[in-house]
Structures are given as C-alpha cells and as structure tokens.
Design brief:
single chain, about 450 residues, alpha/beta, TIM Barrel, 2 domains, 11-stranded mixed beta sheet, about 35% helix, about 20% strand, globular, binds iron/sulfur cluster
C-alpha cells in the first residue's frame, strides 16, 4: 500500500528491474511536457502547487500529509503480511511474524518506538504493513504506546486495504481513541467502497489513497462523485514507481518510465493530473492530493536527515531546507584584536546562541547575533554537516564507535540509536555581503546549492 512506497523511497530501494524499462520516445517528449505544463497550470488555477511546485493538490491536505510535508512523519511497518495481490506492490507481503520497523530500524517493543517518536520530534505517525489491520493486537499496542507517551501531540493514521476493517474490527481499534485517520487502498479490491463507507460512519477521518493507474482513468473519474457521496475526506493519488520487486509487473503494462534512480511511470503522473483537471471542470469539491516521485525524492530523500538535524541542533546552529546542519564560524578575535566573546557578552547576546570550539579554533555563532558585532568580520566561514541516524545494524553500538560527534537516542531496554553529525563541506569562506544575508535569515547565492531544494518538476527527457 501507499505507506510501503513511501519508506522504500526513503530507503532508496530502487528495484534491480529498473534497467531496460521503456522510456518516453524522443518524438513524444515535447508533447508530454506541454501536456503536463497545461495540466499543472489548470491545477494551479483551481488549487495549489505547494512544496516548491512539487505537490499539486486541490483543497486541503490531510493533517497527516501536512506533517509529511514538514518532514515530521514516521511510518511504522508492523508486518509484511497482506491478503491483497496488487500488481504495484513493492514486495510479496507474505511474511507472518516479521519484526516491526520504521525508517529501516527494528523496534523491540511498542514503547521503544514511542520513545523514538518522542526523541526525534515526529508529530505524524502512521502504521502500515502489509496491512496492519491483519495484526490488530500489535497495531493497538503500538497506537496505545504512542498515545500514552505523546498524548495529543501527534497525529496518527493507518493504511489498510479494507479487508480486515469490517466485522467490528475497525471499531475495536478506534475504541482505544488513538487513531485520527484511516486510509484505504481501494485499488486492492477493484475500487470496492463498502469497507470505506462503513469506516466513514465510525472513523474520525477517512482517506482513499491509491496509485494513479493510467488504464483506470475513466473509472476514477466515475468514482469521484461516489467518494464524495460516501463521505471520504481526501483522495491521495500516488505516482506508480519501480520499487522492490514490482518492476516486472509494471513493465508488463504499456507504461513509459522516467530515467531516475527510482523510475516512475510518466503515464501515472499524467493520469493523476488529468483526474484533477477533470475534477475541477466537473465541480468536484473532494480534496485531491497528488504525491509524485519528485516530491518524494526531495522531501523524503532528505527527511530523516532533516529530522535528525532538528533533533540535535543546538541554539547556535541552523537546520537548512536541504536537511543539513549549518554552522557559522567566527574567529575568536576580530581583525582589530578585540575578543569577540567579550563583545557578545557585553552586548547581552543570548549565551546559548554562541559557543566556543577550541578544537576548531573558532566560535559557532547564530547568525541573528551578527548585528551585535558592530563591524562584520572579513574572515568568517560556514560548514555543513549531515546528521545520520544510525544503529547497531550500521555498526554504531555506542558513541565511541564512530569518529564523529554522536548524540544518543535512547529507546529503553538497552536499545539505542545515534544521530551522527558528519562534516560534508570544507570550511567555506563567507564575505560581508553573505554575512548580511545570513543575519537577515536569507541564504546567500553562493550557499544556495548547499541549503535549498530545487523548485518545480523537472521536464521529462
Ligand atoms: S494492499 Fe496491495 S499494495 Fe498494499 S500491501 Fe497489500 S498487496 Fe501490497
């Protein structure tokens, strides 16, 4: 289901089947780009292209999708067990008793996962599988653990194909009070809406989340009024992508694929945008959100680094849009020989916002303090650092086992992860113009490539 796709993108698990896939014929590239531009313009007029143009949507996003966009989301895969047989599924999903994992880390207990959510500062938590409703007791235990530790600070949703939500099972889950939204992959059962209609009567919010399957476009158009009628709150459309073991199945359809490291189906993206344009023309008010490969690559590809950086950033440091930790360094003494620390203290600068690093021979200073210095220094520099969340499976048992700064993430019962802060840049000199930009909270042009995510969707090639 959709959650599986998310995590595989995060993990970069492109399939081995990714080579030799049909590309867009050269003669069709210009027409495909023109068609997409026209559809995006139509969606932009009636909705929005948020997240720097990478996420077209009509109407409001689900609160869970908002947290995803803020890179505040973790997805726990409770089992690899499902009774569906979706051709686009990234794995066989026939493993009973598989260990629960999130962001590739196995968690020994529900409380260990809840501690992880808390320590990393996630505010959106989802449960996927396979289908987590097939292991209802484990799902309830995890939802309860997250709620007990974080209360109402998190938004919780589940993914299901709907086969196991009926017969009172969804009510049993919801009776615990911890689930805010239920998302149905109705493509698993030929777009049957019975389970969805039942869920709408008992769940706080019901979303339909499916891949945009090009050959089903006309069926999807006919489905939109039905989704509205039964009370679905959101329709989330994913772009079909080659993930895990689904490459052969996707290649058996008449699709054209991007040449990206995780190949995506061009026809699926066009199908999603066609459906959104149709909804606008037909006066459908159901919120529709398109989740494409570009959005996932940009937001999820940097997501865990961003969250790890946010979790460990000190008050003198800045987390960039690209998910890096930026440190701004000043020499301890100004060109005039003045002690910069004395100057900051005398100006009443918040002592938490700067610190001395004797090893590097400089001060790490938050850019908001530059105004306290009088004349800006000529010999400042910045460094960038990736914050990697690593565990025992990566060979990181304790902080001493890595040659970098490491921050423990204690999960209880002896289980522990570490955020390892790895320098990835040289010392990059910043002139006074760049310091003025940093002081104003802006990114100077010379640092844009380090700090910002690109805008828009890249042309098909
Ligand atoms: S519902 Fe379909 S996509 Fe989701 S886990 Fe089951 S078989 Fe895979």
């Amino acid at each position: 289901m959709a959650g599986d796709v998310e995590v595989l993108v995060r993990l970069g698990l492109a399939s081995d089947d990714a080579t030799g896939l049909p590309r867009l014929p050269t003669a069709e590239v210009a027409a495909a780009n023109a068609r997409r531009r026209a559809l995006l313009a139509r969606v932009a007029r009636g909705g929005a292209l948020s997240h720097k143009g990478a996420k077209p949507h009509l109407g409001a996003l689900s609160p869970g999708c908002v947290r995803c966009g803020e890179r505040d989301w973790t997805c726990m895969f409770l089992n690899q067990h499902c009774n569906g047989s979706c051709f686009f599924c990234p794995g066989p999903m026939d493993t009973r008793g598989a260990a629960p994992f999130a962001e590739r880390f196995v968690f020994h207990t529900p409380d260990a996962y809840a501690r992880y959510v808390e320590r990393m500062g996630f505010r959106g938590v989802s449960f996927s599988g396979g289908d987590p409703m097939l292991t209802l007791d484990a799902l309830r235990a995890h939802v309860r653990a997250v709620r007990e530790r974080l209360g109402d600070d998190v938004y919780v949703w589940i993914y299901t194909n709907g086969s196991a939500t009926r017969g009172g099972r969804l009510e049993r889950l919801l009776a615990g009070g911890g689930v805010d939204e239920v998302r149905f992959n109705i493509a698993a059962w030929d777009y049957d809406l019975e389970a969805v209609a039942e869920a709408v009567r008992v769940a706080p919010r019901v979303t339909v989340e499916i891949p945009a399957i090009p050959e089903d476009l006309e069926r999807l158009k006919a489905l939109l009024p039905e989704l509205e009628r039964v009370g679905v709150a959101h329709l989330n459309l994913h772009q079909l992508m080659v993930l895990g073991t689904n490459g052969e199945a996707l290649a058996s359809h008449p699709y054209r694929f991007t040449a990206d490291s995780v190949p995506a189906v061009i026809d699926s993206e066009l199908c999603a945008l066609e459906l959104m344009a149709f909804a606008l023309d037909a006066g459908i008010t159901l919120p529709i959100n398109y989740c494409g490969a570009t959005y996932k690559e940009r937001l999820h590809g940097t997501g865990l680094d961003f969250r790890a950086a946010t979790a460990v950033a000190g008050p003198s440091e800045v987390v960039t849009e690209s998910g890096m930790l930026r440190r701004l360094w000043l020499p301890r003494r100004s060109e005039a020989g003045e002690d910069v620390t004395a100057r900051l203290s005398a100006a009443g600068a918040d002592p938490a916002r700067w610190r001395e690093d004797a090893d590097r021979g400089g001060l790490v200073v938050h850019p908001s303090l530059l105004g306290e210095l009088g004349e800006l220094p000529r010999d400042a520099w910045v460094t960038y650092h990736r914050c990697l969340l690593l565990g025992a499976a990566d060979g990181v048992e304790d902080a001493e086992s890595v040659p970098h700064e490491a921050h423990p993430v204690d999960l209880g019962d002896g289980q522990r992860l570490h955020v390892v802060v790895v320098p990835v840049s040289a010392e990059l000199p910043v002139d006074r113009g760049a310091l003025r930009a940093l002081s104003a909270g802006e990114t100077p042009p010379a640092l844009l490539a380090w700090e910002q995510l690109p805008y828009g969707l890249p042309d098909y090639a």
